[in-house]
Amino acid sequence: MIGDEDRGDAVTAARRLVEERFPDARAAFLGGSVVLGGATATSDLDVTVVRAEGAAYRESLTYAGWPVELFVHTPASVRHYVGKDLERRRPTMARLVSAAVVLLDRDGSGAALAAECAAAVAAGPGPLAAAERDALRYGLTDLLDDLAGGGDPPARTAVAVHTWQAAGELLLAAEGRWSGTGKWLVRELAAYDAEAGSAYASRLDAGLRAALDGDPGPLTQVADEVLARCGGRLWVGYRAGGETAD
Question: What CDD domains does UniProt report for this protein, alphabetically (predicted)?
Answer without folding.
Answer: NT_KNTase_like
